[in-house]
Fold these 2 entries.
Entry 1:
Amino acid sequence: MSRLRQCFCIAIVSLIRRLRAPCIGRAILTGAESSHRRPLAVLAVCAWLAASSAFACAGAGSPPLQISPALLQEDDFCLGCHGATSHAKDAPLVDRAPLQASAHEGLECSGCHTAITTIPHRVPTARVDCTPCHPGDTKQASLKAQAGKEAPLDQHSAATQHGAKGLPVCANCHGTHSIRRVSDVNSRVGRRSIASTCGGCHKQEARLYRDSIHGAGAVADSADVPTCVTCHPEHARLGKRGVFQQGVVKTCGSCHENAVLEEKYAIPGDRLASYLGSYHGIAKQLGYQRTANCASCHSNHLILPSADPRSATNPANLPRTCGKCHPKVNENVARGKVHIMATAESGGLVYRINVAFKWFTLCTIGALVGHITLELFARTRRRSGGFE
Amino acid sequence: MTSRPPYEVNGEGQSGSGGFGWSVLLREVSEGLRQERAELERQVDWRVLAEVEREIAAGLTADARRRLRERVAQRIEAARADHAAEDEEVLRFSVWFRIQHLGLMLSTLALIVTGLPVRFAETAWARVFFSSIGGVPVQAITHRAAAGLLIAVGVFHMVYITLTREGRRELTALLPRARDVGHLIHNLAYFVGLTRHGPRFDRFSYAEKFDYWAVYWGIVVMVGSGLMLWAPEISMQYLPKYAMDIARAIHSDEALLAAVAIIVWHFYNVHFGPEHFPFSRTWLTGRVSAKKMRNYHPLEYERLRHAQEAPAHEEERDQA
């Protein structure tokens, strides 16, 4: 901001305050709003500037001046410096158009930039605090809670708590003046853009995701296909996160054990049930977290159908995939199905063994119980003289 | 002594050559009838003896009367001894077999306890069990340790029944024979009231033989499939994955069958059966009362009595 312009502004503000005449300032500013009164307003501003510039320059070295609460409500007051028309050389340019198209349409500058109360701004770099309006689900809220009472709300704040630097805050993902609702197609955190938004930092993951079956679907804009936040719900509390060891099975199962989606996309069914019936799944259910979960075999971001040669579950790749936990396994691991339902016809031989044993068990135990029953029956009858 | 059906003279000797036929059943039924006749004959014997004694008492010499009285007294004494012997206990299982049974029992119980929760992993009690013992790794180790004990008992048993005299004798007595099928049918007929007397068993009834051979089958299946699953990395060097799946299905299903069979059949026969409740102590002491012996293993019992008394009779004859 040029020295002269700064002086003008301060002069206006100080005079308004000194003369206890906020009505004049408002008249000027509302005049600027409505075009037919604009000449009058400009004239008034010029007059005030001319009249007070000398006086104001004399007071330039004094401490920053408080902006009155009334003026803080007026966006045009801020745009006097930050606006495109009267843009000062070193004041950040603010375009009102994206803001008016955003979810925060109608909110004045001071609604978010609460730290700015003086001219010149004492804390020009102060970040916007979203918590007054969005309590509980933002990073700031968790940073405030990090005094140790509450668990951190999300991975980024948890990492910040542990000393990591440069991690994103609300604005890094949601944008600043152009914040749109998640449901909005043009939102930075919406279905279409979220991969790019997260990929700004997580480049490798975003690239693998775009190559995966899920990423290909997301580009096609299907509302059923998972995006980054489907599996990594950013604002979920620690321990309830989608891909956490305890939760990953449920997260994948929410789609892959969903009859509607299985039908719609012709994806194989009973994935969760057959996993839970396997030794891996049993160990998982019984609290053993080192066992394989969905992602252990299917990888995490580059998830592809097993027919794809790049897939971790492609038969050719299985020895390597299984070998991560079971060293020394060879191509034998690829000989046989993996998601076997022992209770369904698709289970093949395992199902037939199951059925055979069921009947074998029923017949054997039935015969034994029958024998015992007859013996007890005979004993009772003979004791009461029944057969004699 | 009590009469003995001619075909049972040497217990196991009469082999079960040839399959089961109606002849076996007929033999069983006719044997029941024979028993009844023997009982009748015995009663008639006593009455006739008393009658004869009364009739000839007057005409006998004093010496003859004394001799007669002595012999009657001897018989009464023998009958009393018989009665007293019922409360005695007979050794049925040697300490070696008791040790094997103990090992089998402990390992099987441990295997069932640590194995069933895996089969029923989705249930709440399985989760409670696992969290209380300290998780999956503890279960994995205890299950394998118990399996090791079971395998050791199995190997020891195989050695024992083939290489020792006692073992071979027991194995011979345990071999299934056609007679066992006859016994089963006879017993069922007896249960529903078709015959007045049940079959007379030798050392091992068909029920006991079933119990024994069921364990054989169970151990072969469980140990075979269990060894495949013991160390999957090693098994899968040689076996395809589907073989492991089959082994697992068999291991799981047969385990349930074995567990239920033990709880139903074996527990009824040694715990909950009216004559054993709350439990039979035979597995600890190896002994069984002569009364039970006579009731449930009459042929063996009689053979034992005969073997005991035979020398005494010979002495008597020598003296005479």
Entry 2:
Amino acid sequence: MARAATVYTGPDQDEPIPVDTDATIQHVSSRLGDSTDLVSKRFLAMHAWPAGILYMEGMIDTQLLHQAILSSLLRSDLPEPKDWEIPEDPLTYIKNEVLVAGDIQTIDKLADLFDFLLAGCVILQLDGSREAIAIHAVGWEDRNVTEPQSQSVVRGPMEGFTENLRTNTTLIRRKIRSPELWLETMPIGRVTKTNVGIMYIKDLAQEGILNEVKRRLQAIDIDSVLESGYIEEFIQDTAKTPFPTLYNSERPDTIAAGLLEGRIAILIDGTPFVLLVPALFNHFFQSPEDYYQRSDISTLLRMIRYLCFFIAILSPSFYIAITTFHQEMLPTGLLINLAAQREGVPFPAFIEAVLMELTYEILREAGVRIPRTVGQAVSIVGTLVVGQAAVEAGVVSAAMVIIVSITAISSYVIPENGMSISARMLRFLLMGLAGAFGFYGVLIGILFILVHLCSLRSFGVAYMSPYAPYKSSDMKDTLFRVPWPFMRRRPLSSGGTGTQRLKPPERQT
Amino acid sequence: MNIRRMITLLLLLASLAMMTGCWDRKELNEIGIVLAMAVDLDPDKGYKVSCQVVVPSEVASNSGKSTTTTVTLVKATAPTIHEALYKMTLNSPRLSYMSHVRLLVFSEELARKGMAEVLEALIRDPNFRPDYFLTIAHGSSAEEILTILTPLESIPANSLYYSLRNSADSWAPTVEAYADDTVEKMVASGVEAVMTGIEIQGDQITGGSKKNLDSIRPEASLLFSGMAVLVRDRLVGWMNEEESKGYNYIQGNVQETVGHIDCPYGDGKVSLLLLRSETRIEPRLIDGEPEFDVKMKAVQTIYGDSCKSALGSEYAIRQLEKDANKKLAQIMTDSVKAAQTRLKADIFGFGRTFYRKFPTEWKKLGVNWNEKFTTVKVNCIVESQIRRIGSLDETITKQMKEEMPE
């Protein structure tokens, strides 16, 4: 119980707003610890009523404040108060007749006052009133809609989501101009009160999955949500897997396509990464570009991506297994060549492989963190150390460098980062098995991974579908990408209702 | 509590993986890759086994300076093959790795006494892949064959391997005797095995040092010569080049080869390239006695002509075809004759084809087949076509003569 008491809950829910404006300002200011970005201002509204406004500097549109709020409240061309009828309720009068700003709400609780204030509203209170009004005047500095950093394409839309929830929903709505596109929003996070939107297309999304998504989101009880990763870990089916069971993208076209398949998007304010559920194994190998290019090249690229996934997972372990256990499997010429390269290498192949893979992971991690200005220096050192010097010094064999490079490059072919991360992790597991048991171990490892994959669910949908359980009608968008005119039905296995996408072909009579 | 138990369990499992010690593990730089093996008979101690082991750093193209030869020889003498193989660790830092053996050389002495014991040991051992060639050293010990350095292909075993394959395909008098096929032939009734012989030409002392590769004309070189004929697992004799060629024709082993025929009129030779051939052995039963037709179909091209007759005419070509048929039939008949009279071994598998067609008669006739084979009648029928005459029409000799004013 003592522990529960320390959890931050915010201001008392039912505490009313003080009648005296000065008291309100005083209260808010002290509640915010005299934060310097709180701006309070006393003035005579309509030349008649003493009033006060409160807002957080930087969170509101100052132009809007001046033009739409202050200038109408302090209009100089107004008739003298005695000339016109004094309204009974000045606050309602101001709200309905004076202010030209659009979204105005009346509040009477201090808790609400803080909510609106910190969401970027201007709070106006008239002296002696138990109520205040919150005027929506949000306007803070935003990043522009730019090309997404991850998942870039050669052909296709170049816009990416931003950190602003509203911008993001707009980007999607602009693509799907249908009244069926529904959006529900809920705040999550006791402290951050982050807006989380659930977007789906009514009739295409499965009711059950939608309810499950809502249920899981509502069950989240955390004080802060800063990125979609927070939500992801709360609502995923199981944490005990290296594979991602939620898809994320910063591309509006990807999300729109997902919605049109009947999947559900979860948008989180403050991050350009939008979640898409359910996410199946197959989805992680689909690039948005697949659908914009000709189907034949898309199919070829799909297959290359699957191949690369296997290369990324298996190539070091295959190398270890072959060179330390199964030398008979190599053609004689290649064996002698490899043996010559390994001549004088002081480590067993397994240690050599682990060392090189670790070195690569270090370089990669450093590459992400390093300030751009020194990045080049580090990459030169990296290439020289890992590539040339290590081989020339005879510490590692040249073949190992080839293996590490092809592994590294292959892991970036997978369009979604989450899947390449799982490939990177599983690689080490399989390397260990290969080092201890050879191909026998690798095979056992693959078997375990396969069984695990088949047992996974993403929001109740089998992760490996449509491969297992096999669904032949959904195979049109898996290893292959058939031309659009043949994609008659939406995929059933990705959680949608599997309705017609194209007009059914006319019967030949 | 549960998590702690899980972690303990995982740690225990992980240590289990370490405990195994990877018993089967051999690093590439801990094994000596054996590419050829020679077996000699040692009168007192059993077998003398020599292995040609690759020195990888010498073979790899980019490893600058070369200090030693590309291969080295490791040998040991012991009562059995495997004892000898493991005894080799006495004078080699690396364990012999036998999966890549490409060539096995028997000494002639051993071959005459029987190779079954050696082959049994090698085929039973799963570390050997039975796709190496079997050969017999001709005129030297088996070990000496492995001590000659070869130009062009830096590993002698590879040199022999490729040379044997190429010559079997395109010159014909050698034979690719894979270990498994050969053992199968040794075991089967109605067919006997053959192998190719290897001999050393030149000075074999220099042949083993790098000096051998210093001159354009190597001091010593290896050469495939003739074909060893076996009865069961024992060497009974040799066939010369022409007879071996006949053997390969009958077996249909020939991919491409060159031969010649004498001119129909006067002296001179026509050389012919055999483009493809197909041979069928057809057994017949005549009056309770087996008889065999060897039917060969071949397509040939003229590759050289020094005859006086005109080539241009259809008639001349048909004439040449007839001569070529006669010549090819002669080669095959000679080969059969040699097998029947001199060697008394049915290396052609006549018995086996007969058995396949007349299984019931074989029960009676198959007894002591090799003896019966010596008197069996074999007809060689060749049907060859000359499809092309090459890039020239009349021969150059003829064209010159026409322009002479006489």
